[in-house]
Amino acid sequence: MFAHEEEWSMVANPEEATAELCGDGFDCVQAYPTDQADYLKFESTDEAEDAAERIGADTYLSNYVVIRYTDPELTEKQRAKIAESMDGVHNSED
Description:
Blueprint: H1 18-21, E1 30-33, E2 37-41, H2 45-55, E3 59-62, E4 65-69, H3 76-91
Antiparallel strand pairs: 1-2, 2-4, 3-4
């Protein structure tokens, strides 16, 4: 028998929440929480780096976007897939 992985979505239930999440010291320009993570977009990579350092654990920095993992059930493989997907967005040709 093959091991079966439970289906999951990298971006389940996204909602725009810039007003709620961008503030309190985080000057992000866009914010979208999902069931798995918050995606915080900043105007510059320096601002994103600073925010990622201040948030600390359970974050991933991809260019000017900080991913703050909020689902404690995410596996390392799932976190890596989310990070790879975001990195692919920044590295794709327009």
